[in-house]
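Researcher: Quick sanity check before group meeting.
Model: Go ahead. Protein one:
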Amino acid sequence: MNKTDVEIRVNMRENTNQKSDQYGHFYPYIDRMSTLDTRGLCKHVANHNSIYGREVIEGVVLQITSCTLELLSMGVAVQLTGFGTFYPTLQSRYEGVVSMKEAEELGVDTVVEGIHVRFLPDSTDLDNITSKKFKERCALKYHMLDEVTVTEVDGKKKYTHVYKPISEVANAPEPEPPTP
């Protein structure tokens, strides 16, 4: 698959944690403009020369979602070929248990704190969408520098974001050092 004509916009953010070894370094993140809901995804699929309308596609997707959740709740992993595998994992008590006797006394509902649904992208040669292979499909473009300032308001941290085009920031002249 060739790179798409649509670009993924990449913003940059500076690490402002003075305790970090990476303080002052800049890191990329995807500028997610929105989230498409089920109806929007089904409409998008229908617009790709599908013989089925949005309503039919949405019905199938809703049934797949329902059945996938049912199977996951039974401990069955679900692989969507070409996309990846959804599978359940457990979150146990932070300190664990020291013996099977303790586990039995506490009960499984206490020992298991939560159940996570994980996703493992398809990594077959034909449909590899693991991180580096998926990047080859995408067209990346720098977009904004995200300058974050943290202030405290009523005892709570407030984050303020100021966005500046990276092209302007990267080409700006370096500030002059202060004169003595």
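Researcher: Fine. The other one?
Model: Protein two, sequence then structure:
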Amino acid sequence: MQIIQYFKYFPIIVVLIQKLPTHDNKNLSFETVLVLQGGGSLGAYECGVYKTLDKHGIKFDVIAGTSMGGINAAIIAGSKKDEPSKSLEDFWLNLAETATPSFLSQDKRAQLSSMYVSMWGTPNAFQPIWFIPNLFSFLYCNRPYLYDVEPLKKTVKDYVDFDKLKNLDRPRLIITTTDMQNGKPSIFDSKYDKIDATHVVAGCGYPFYGIAWTEVSGRYLWDGSLLSNTPLAEVINASPICDKKVYVVDLFPHIQEDIPKNMMESWHRARDIMDSDKTDHSVRMSKIISRYLSLIKNMHDFIESFQLDEKARKEFEKIESEYHKLACQRGAVIREIIRVKRQEDGDSHFLFENADFSLATIKQLISDGEKDAEKVLSTKS
């Protein structure tokens, strides 16, 4: 075939590629993305981070989240108020429980609050099923979950105007969940889906804490963090053309120098490793794929510049549609990734600190998020 003959020019093409940028930014738009992890009450830290980003005038084209990160993302994207950061802070203060004394140490407060929440729940989020009137409610051990999420759904409606998600001046919202029956991701995207409170709360059903799943259109959905707690790959798949500047809030520390001293600390460390940000591979792969696509595009243009005979032209046309799918409909590159990382005190390794909804802890997490984001931005200026 005549086209094959042109591949003898491959070394020339490689030289051409080396002299060209790996991406033609003039032909691609650019997006600023915020990625929010799930982490129970630790989501209050993301609230603090967003407050600082908003204060610095950073606007987002896409906001993606899972679990409580999805709740935060929905409030930011569809806030009923003109100040999303204020709505987000109000939400977290409203979610907090006030029974746990604020004067306790951080560890003691986390232990007491998590025990309180496990028994009584949080009125505006998770309701224990033994509080739901039912003749057989005392047989809760035989239920597939322990906490109902209807209160959280009602609370989300108080802060999110879901009709606004279709407005062009609002960020595109991406919520990730896990289909419990087929083990695959189920993604809700405001560009294509009419998202409501049910979709948002669906990503919060965490089975290891006994939180109920949500049924959406015949699918039974659990927490998106069961597959990925940092939904950056989902953003790239949803918007594969636009280059990106990405802000990631990492709630779970990557590094812990000290070795666990007991089983609780071992579980805590394992949980941090499983839920921490693992997007470095996605970033590397996006750059590699971009170079491959650039090579394909330049090879295509190089061959097209020849006067092909009729047979070769027909063969060339056969590959055109596949070429456009590969080279023209994908190729987004993550140009910059900015991480704001939550740190833990050296002696604080309590497993259920993400179930500490005490008011003092929520306020502290918001404050820590603000300060850490400020430090990160100061290094970028």
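Researcher: One line on it for the slide.
Model: Residues 280-304 form the longest helix (25 residues).
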